[in-house]
Design brief:
- With 614 residues, the chain is of the alpha/beta class.
- The chain is 37% helix and 16% strand.
- It is globular and about 80 Å long.
């Protein structure tokens, strides 16, 4: 049977057919859907881990137990998982262990453009790289076979275009695999004496893998015209074929590390001019040069951004595909916080209080966008708290009490706790604001340890943020609803005035969650509107100006009430015409379920009491 599949869905299908039993990941675009799709197969235990390091360690444990195991992440997540990765290369595996890492050329949803092939080289771990959905499935299955055959973790390297493009996939059946656990201290306990003995084994393994790649169909030569020979991989292969067809010869690499010297030399000897077409860093190009091949690559192709058919055509002096060209530029549509986003009121308050804001990774990164422009730094997951601690300790601004860290609930669980532990331990006068929107938002609404639900939406253990931060030594903990600007302002001012570490939990569920109830759209009384533009300061996409008056788009407005609280002329009214609407509390799904249980319990007790009376 054949099916049209996204690359990520196809990779998950490969996990299923290969007999994978355990999958642990942290969501990160463009890798997220692999875990989500794998979770649809009951034969695979799937989970969201607090971060990539924990996910990889968990997958390693499952592998040691003899199960085939998977761990997924985006490229920057691999930085977090690097510590266990390098040592797992030494220990090897028991059941197959596959690590999917998805790069993001062009930085569609990332803070840098790193090339994950460097990790394969540095950690001495083989890496397979598919160029379409069928290969995503096939290579996921092959990765397990190689993992067990060569006793090594294996990378499955995806990228944005392969992950999120669709092509036809041939489906197969699942085959179960299970190995027995055997205790082996010399192999698995990496104290120095044992690690020294494992390193030569790793080096020999890489030689064997290179020899395997030389004759494997995972790398294939497609001979065409011999004037030009192109070595390429991933989506670059697709662009090369679209531009040249059979007019050039192509060495299409499916295993991008280790590389086979003999295979590269043999291909080069059959063409007059050798090129390498690869996105991001010149990894293949530089390797070719180290073995003495004369090759052209980054001197005609860019090292930044993702490629396209037209870009490759232009680099080779070919005529671009006219059907793919646009006569005029499309209008720019910058990312912006959604209508009703709970982070908007908090960032408006921080801007009003002239706070220096050390930022983090998540939807709230959009707080840096105009007109709020309420963010000063943003480097990595969990980086805000440590940055704020250092900033405040040396007096980064005249009044350090106006410097805060902002971090999401999922990101706090990922890598923010250690930063807060540092603040509490060293007692810096730092205010940390946890933006608790009851979900992992930017990657598409995945559960996390604070929500009370697992990847399938079933009840799970729930971490209480207030109790957690208090247990870490933070005495000043404040809760505010960011839809209530007055209460939020009081919380911020109170925390900043507190001469000790403090935490504010800004709590309101993401406006896009299915269970969130929205109020009816607000409207502008044009007779009252004076055109002061105060409502425009929050950057809400539902509000615009027409003929000197504010206008609210009823198709977007969710009735959050922020604009009404800012209107000095009482021109913004709710659906009943009230210019001072009540701010209704926003409950998380967990809280709603708890209230439902309490109501059901109360009803049961009431029925029991009636029965007793009778």
């Amino acid at each position: 049977m054949k099916q049209l599949m996204l690359g990520n869905k196809a990779a998950a299908r490969g996990l299923y057919e290969a007999g994978c039993r355990f999958a642990s990941s942290y969501p990160g675009t463009p890798s997220t859907e692999i875990e989500e799709e794998a979770a649809k197969y009951d034969e695979i235990y799937c989970e969201w881990a607090p971060n990539e390091k924990v996910a990889l360690e968990s997958a390693f444990g499952a592998s040691q137990a003899g199960a085939r195991a998977y761990c997924g992440m985006k490229h920057v997540g691999l930085n977090v998982a690097a510590d266990p990765l390098f040592t797992m290369s030494y220990t090897g595996v028991n059941g197959g262990l596959v690590i999917a890492v998805a790069d993001d050329p062009g930085m569609h949803s990332s803070q840098n453009e790193q090339d994950s092939r460097h990790y394969a080289i540095a950690a001495k771990v083989p890496m397979l790289e598919p160029s379409d959905s069928q290969e995503a499935k096939d290579f996921a299955m092959l990765a397990f076979e190689l993992s067990e055959q060569f006793d090594t973790p294996v990378f499955l390297k995806m990228c944005t275009r392969v992950s999120h493009s669709q092509s036809v996939v041939e489906l197969g059946e699942r085959t179960e695999h299970q190995k027995e656990y055997v205790k082996n201290i010399q192999k698995n306990v990496m104290v120095p004496a044992n690690a020294r003995k494992r390193h030569p084994i790793v080096e020999e393994r890489m030689k064997k893998l290179a020899a395997w790649a030389e004759t494997s169909s995972v790398n294939r030569v497609e001979m065409g015209g011999t004037d030009i020979g192109i070595i390429t991989d991933s989506t670059s292969y697709q662009y090369v074929k679209e531009v040249f067809g059979d007019r050039v010869s192509v060495l299409k690499l499916g295993m991008v590390w280790p590389l086979s010297d003999q295979q590269l030399r043999d291909f080069a000897s059959g063409v007059k001019k050798l090129y390498v077409v690869e996105e991001l860093d010149p990894v293949i190009e530089n390797y070719c040069k180290t073995i003495g091949l004369e090759v052209t690559g980054k001197d005609i192709l860019p090292i930044c951004d993702e490629f396209s058919q037209n870009l490759v055509a232009k680099a080779f002096g070919e005529k671009p595909d006219e059907g793919r060209k646009l006569d005029e530029e499309l209008p720019v549509r910058p990312p912006i916080m959604c209508s009703g986003c709970p982070h908007r009121g908090l960032f408006y308050t921080l801007k009003k209080n002239r706070c220096t804001v050390l930022g983090d990774i998540g939807c709230y990164s959009l707080g840096a966008a105009a007109p709020l422009s309420a963010m000063d730094t943003n480097i990595c997951m969990g980086g805000s708290i440590g940055s704020a601690h250092g900033f405040n300790t040396v007096g980064g601004v005249k009044n350090s009490r106006h410097s805060v860290a902002v971090i999401g609930d999922s990101t706090f669980m990922h890598s923010g706790m250690t930063g807060l532990a540092n603040v509490a331990y060293n007692q810096s006068n730092t205010t940390v604001i946890i933006l608790d929107n009851s979900i992992t938002g930017m990657t598409g609404h995945q559960e996390n340890p604070t929500t009370g639900y697992n990847i399938k939406g079933d009840p799970a253990g729930r971490i209480d943020l207030e109790a957690l931060v208090r247990s870490m030594g933070i005495d000043d903990v404040r809760i505010c609803d960011p839809y209530d600007l007055k209460a939020t302002d009081e919380a911020v001012k109170g925390a900043l005035a507190h001469d000790a570490p403090s935490v504010i939990i800004s709590r309101r569920p993401c406006a896009l969650l299915k269970y969130v109830h929205h109020e009816k759209p607000f409207r502008v009384n044009r007779d009252k509107c004076v055109g002061c533009r105060s409502c425009m300061q929050i950057g809400c996409p539902s509000i615009s100006f027409r003929d000197g008056k504010a206008v609210i788009d009823a198709t977007q407005c969710v009735g959050c009430g922020l604009c009404q609280q800012m209107c000095r002329s009482d021109a913004i009214e709710d659906s009943t015409g009230n210019p001072h609407a009540e701010i209704k509390p926003g409950f998380s799904r967990y809280e709603l379920d708890q209230m439902k249980k309490e109501q059901e319990a109360a009803g049961t007790q009431k029925d029991a009491a009636k029965g007793g009376e009778q």
